[in-house]
Amino acid sequence: MHKRRHFKQTETLRDRLQAFAKDVRAQAAGLPPSLEKDNLLRKARQADTASHLDEWLNSPGLQHPK
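Above: the chain's sequence. Below: its structure in token form.
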């Protein structure tokens, strides 16, 4: 049986998702209109949505984030 590697994240999930979205948008900015560009922009939007969900889930009393 393989042992799983455990490590502590140094950045929050929200920070990592925002950095990922920023990097993907930068990659997409250098591309001409294409399916690849559309896919990168979709991934960036999904990361933004996940970041907002994480913020909402971690808000006090599960209040809707502003």
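Helices lie at 13-29, 35-57.
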